[in-house]
Amino acid sequence: MSTGKINVTADNIFPIIKKFLYSDHEIFLRELISNAVDATTKLKQLSRMGEAKGELGDLTIKVEIDEANKQLRIIDRGVGMTAEEVDQYINQVAFSGAEDFLKKYEGKLDGADIIGHFGLGFYSAFMVASKVEIKTRSFKAESNEAVHWICEGNPEFNLEIVEQEDRGTEIILHISEDSEEFLKDSRIGELLDKYAKFMQVPIQFGTREETVTEGEGDDAKEEKVTVPHIVNNTEPAWTKSPSELGEDDYKQFYRELYPMTFEEPLFHIHLNVDYPFDLTGILFFPRIKPNMEIQKNKIQLYQSQVFVTDHVEGIVPDFLTLLHGVIDSKDIPLNVSRSYLQNDHNVRKISSHITKKVADKLEELFKADREDFAQKWNDIKVIIEYGMLSEEKFFDRSKKFALMVNSDNEKFTIDEYLEKVKENQVDKNGETIVLYAANKEAQHSFISKAKGKGYDVVILDSPLTSHYVQKLESAYEKVKFKRVDADTIDKLIEKDEEISSALSDKQREELKEAMEANVDKAKFTVRLENMDSSELPLTITVPEFMRRMKEMQMTGGGMMMGELPESYELIVNTNHPLASKILEAEGDFKSNLIKHATDLAMLQQNLLHGEALTNFIHRSVDSL
């Protein structure tokens, strides 16, 4: 037996590991199993090259818990190590300048950063273990000679030559008192499911019961047998060629990724690139309703089938974080922070390529079966609108397949729709006015007024609508979007013709004063308009600019102007008989008349609630 000192320039390596890696201490299991997978994969490669002789046998990696002795073991039958290799790979830790590095970046790095920067994958074991043992025999050993290495969380180690029948490596972690959660089957099972679900070598964790059928026909009987519990799928769908997979295979893989999700995805995009960078993966379009109940962090990032993270913001374009699925690339480092990934040249190229592939797929689906694409539009429009707002290249591509749906449920591309309305919906300034509604039912009366004038109305009901119409207005010359309840229909699309008022200037002034005296001036701005006598006497509108600003603030955009107040315009039709009636009325009757008419206008805009609604109902009943 020999003893020695781990060759590091900072003797306090172990306190540093525990201090700086503790917040991410579960990562130790990924690191140790990744090492076992690497050792096994290397053996298979050497065998194919003829450098490793003999049968390889069962290469399953085993994870075992010995709760009584407070031990966790990771066992592989890979290449193993000689004494010289243990000295090279375990005892020589590249940790030069560690203290200066940590002082410089303290508070800016997480555990994975430090592991990746210094190659400390194996030493992450000391985050949870007070002592670590390695028992290893190299595939090159001609006898049963093996190495036994022991370290108790300080730079001192013991190393002795022992006998071991099988090649490979066993890592034994003596779990610390403050980390005994890692002696629980449920906790290790959870981590294996998170980090090792798709690793390339079978991983066994305990056993499970399986029902098998013995015999045939009338003699057949079912028996329960105990079999190894393999926790991972070594050949997940994204590692295969698209030609090998059918639609059911993709759906099965989706259920494998998200076992608690019961809705099937709308469609998928299979990524398969080997030049100029390595990229494989499958992205799924989930159903996203207009209320935007979005679950991000559903894309899982892998490096050679080893889980890296499911926080992919900045790694893939932001709008694609709404998708589900897997991205795998050998060009993505395993142990670095997201800030590093976001600035990595390969990652930026991968991000651009994914955006292009998504646009290609959407355009392909649109061209192949426009009717089917249109049926899915309501479920995917938030993702597409989000992409059009955040990625200029995606916007240019998406104009070919982004749809506009009118109140009659007819669907057009943006260019098709602008062509449809360009003759009839051009105002006196030569601008094409696109009328839209956010809710077909709630704004039915306004839509009806517009259609009565021969105008068309599109339904834009996503939470991104205010941003989206702003983007379209900037992209298309002399095009304006106006919501149907933003003003009277004649003001939304102003023509040259004018309507005269039945009231004199003095009567108009009296009417305005009477209205202002009986409404909440902090909430309503009274405006008199000369309209057709068949139009409603009072209409409440929401000015387009203020409403857009409020909606954009709510979704994280627009000018930050503090809490914008509720602001409405109360438009009085001077040519409606009620205007003259209000002028002729006196006292309480006048006030009640104005109040009741205003309540009717508020009811039209769904603004009448609570006590105000109750009082309105009682007044209406009394008038009957």
Automatic annotation (TrEMBL):
Family listed: Belongs to the heat shock protein 90 family.
Q: Which GO terms describe its molecular function?
A: ATP binding; ATP hydrolysis activity; ATP-dependent protein folding chaperone; unfolded protein binding
Keyword terms of this UniProt record:
ATP-binding, Chaperone, Cytoplasm, Nucleotide-binding, Stress response
Q: Which Pfam families match?
A: HATPase_c_3, HSP90
Supply the Gene3D superfamilies for this chain: 3.30.230.80, 3.40.50.11260, Heat shock protein 90, C-terminal domain (1.20.120.790), Histidine kinase-like ATPase, C-terminal domain (3.30.565.10)
Q: What is this protein called?
A: Chaperone protein HtpG
Endpoints of the signal sequence: none
Cited CDD domains = HATPase_Hsp90-like
Tell me which residues bind ATP: E31, N35, D76, M81, S96, G97, T169, R338
Tell me the superkingdom of the source.
Answer: Bacteria
Q: Which InterPro entries match?
A: HATPase_C_sf, Heat_shock_protein_90_CS, HSP90_C, Hsp90_fam, Hsp90_N, Ribosomal_Su5_D2-typ_SF
Please spell out the taxonomic lineage of the organism that makes this protein: Bacteria, Pseudomonadati, Bacteroidota, Flavobacteriia, Flavobacteriales
